[in-house]
Amino acid sequence: xxxxxxxxxxxxxxxxxxxxxxxxxxxxxxxxxxxxxxxxxxxxxxxxxxxxxxxxxxxxxxxxxxxxxxxxxxxxxxxxxxxxxxxxxxxxxxx
Length: 95
Fold this sequence. Notes:
By secondary structure, this protein is mainly beta. 14% of the residues lie in helices and 47% in strands.
């Protein structure tokens, strides 16, 4: 007997720093590689495992804008380099 989720394919090969995400892209935060930044994000209620959506990421700006946990955050680009994400894509087969 097939498992009900056998038609769901999950790809976890999209690891990259937050500053490399494109506008509209979504990913899970998997690591925060800076202790002080980690503490600050924890204080704001942002944790590894949270879904983040890139809102604005222009190379000529010193910061990026993301949406996480119903909050819009403006994060300095240097700090965003230390937040490791994993984009997740789902493919669903309706067979």
